[in-house]
Write a structure and sequence with these properties.
The protein is an alpha/beta fold. 32% of the residues lie in helices and 9% in strands. It has 15 helices and eleven strands. The strands form four sheets. The protein has a five-stranded parallel β-sheet with strand order 3-5-2-6-9, covered by helices on one side. Strand 7 (296-298) and strand 8 (303-304) form a beta hairpin. Helix 1 packs antiparallel against helix 14 and helix 11 (316-323) runs parallel beside helix 14. It is globular and about 65 Å long. Residues 2-15, 39-149 and 160-168 have low confidence and may be disordered.
Length: 436
């Protein structure tokens, strides 16, 4: 008889840890060490960079066979603990059922007392609603940088005759929960990906962002299902909400809905992504401080302020660690935001393969718009002009101090390398920067 399994150790004594888990353990350890060093430099105030465990909900270790549960707030976690561990949860029905726990109030956001003036008062907040909220809360605050989808828009999206995907939405079929989600990242190219995949006849997708797993979870699965377009057998239902990737509770909630859900993450050079994020906000709030002011906790020391959401979203390795607690890498596809522009057909081939679809969206569907600087979508059989994304896409970025760019590249480099190791993909962001 084999010896009993030890808690937290797959297979018990004498067994070998799978290579993938070894890599994930090493990644978690490296992340913790990197954060520890950065926290020591930046102090322990409200604006200080937190450890991966703090940002990912500080989940307590669990047995590999245990069901994914609610993260335990404040529970310490060893850097070497196996990713994918969480405390067992009590049996609870899906959101909206009578057995679901009652929503609890979201914790108050901490302010950054080290900032002065307008810079200190603006956007010193967690990067997304629910990012470090571990309770099922219906009181999520909205990040000023996140676009909002109203209930009225969602109601129109789920009503008969609305455009859920393709060119028309039939009044027949059945509303289903999504089998695939575009979960991130903001300003990475998620809208371009959604519009391209909607051209596939076997995909039906919501055009608006439901924000179910971060803002509207207390409304229940039936509300979420009703937002979806009607589909026929063999068609895939999809939606995209970029803030899911940085929302602490999203992985557990999605896993609770369907553990075989396919996830797509569009990632982009985090430096470029941060500037694009800032540019979007600047277009709405011209009075905000400069990018240089917001990017630093201490400009003299060159200490990056990772409490600013525009910076912290780009620490992809940190956020991915949270998702790998519930989903294997085989269920997550990472799409390059850069290649989605330079080779949209190539990236879409990967997306269609991942979703188990025939490769119908090809190079014939794209036309590069030199004015906008990115591809536009067209129908091969249609002679009309290509359909380009709106004026909110492709904005001209403000000129940023080269020294700030250089310091941001240095800040992100160890996290980028860790992300490459975790995903098994080299996005070559450092190579792109050396070519500039």
């Amino acid at each position: 008889m084999s010896p009993p399994a030890q808690p937290g150790v797959p297979g018990g004594r004498g067994s070998k840890v799978p290579p993938a888990r070894k890599l994930l353990c090493m990644c978690s350890l490296s992340l913790c060490l990197t954060y520890l060093c950065y926290s020591l430099m930046g102090g322990t105030g409200p604006g200080a960079l937190r450890s991966p465990a703090a940002l990912s909900g500080t989940a307590a270790p669990r047995s590999p066979a245990a069901l994914p549960g609610t993260a335990v707030p404040g529970a310490p976690r060893s850097p070497a603990a196996l990713p994918g561990t969480a405390a067992p949860r009590s049996p609870a029905g899906p959101p909206g059922s009578s057995s679901a726990p009652a929503p609890s109030a979201a914790p108050t956001r901490a302010s950054n007392s080290s900032r002065e003036g307008a810079a200190g008062a603006w956007l010193r907040t967690p990067l997304a609603p629910g990012e470090v909220i571990t309770a099922q809360s219906g009181a999520f605050e909205r990040d000023p940088q996140e676009s909002s989808t109203t209930d009225e828009e969602l109601s129109r999206a789920g009503s008969p005759g609305s455009r859920g995907g393709g060119s028309t939405t039939p009044d027949y079929g059945e509303k289903r929960l999504p089998q695939a989600l575009i979960i991130g990242v903001k300003k990475g190219g998620t809208r371009a990906l959604l519009e391209a995949i909607r051209a596939h006849p076997d995909v039906r997708a919501v055009g608006t962002e439901p924000h179910f797993f971060d803002r509207n979870y207390e409304k229940g699965l039936e509300w979420y299902r009703n937002v979806m377009p009607k589909t026929l057998d063999g068609q895939i239902t999809m939606e995209k909400t970029p803030s899911y990737f940085v929302t602490n509770e999203a992985p557990r909630r999605i896993h609770s809905m369907a553990k075989d859900t396919k996830l797509i993450v569009v990632v982009r050079n985090p430096v470029t992504r941060a500037i694009s994020d800032y540019t979007q906000t600047l277009s709405k709030k011209p009075e905000i401080p400069t990018f240089e002011v917001l990017a630093f906790k201490n400009r003299t020391l060159g200490l990056i302020d990772a409490s600013w959401s525009a910076i912290r979203i780009g620490i992809y390795a940190l956020h991915l660690e949270n998702w790998l607690q519930y989903f294997p890498l085989s269920q997550i596809l990472f799409v390059s935001g850069e290649r989605l522009i330079t080779d949209p057909a190539g990236e879409m081939a990967k997306v269609q393969d991942f979703l188990g679809l025939k490769r119908i969206v090809t190079e014939k569907h794209f036309y590069f718009n030199k004015t906008k600087g990115f591809p536009c979508l067209k129908k091969p059989e249609d002679s009309s002009a290509p359909r380009c994304l709106g004026k909110s896409k492709g904005r001209t970025h403000p000129k940023i101090d080269p020294d700030v760019i250089h310091r941001l590249r240095k800040f992100y480099k160890p996290f980028n390398v860790m992300f490459y190791q975790m995903t098994g993909q080299d996005f070559q962001w450092e190579q792109e920067e050396s070519d500039k």
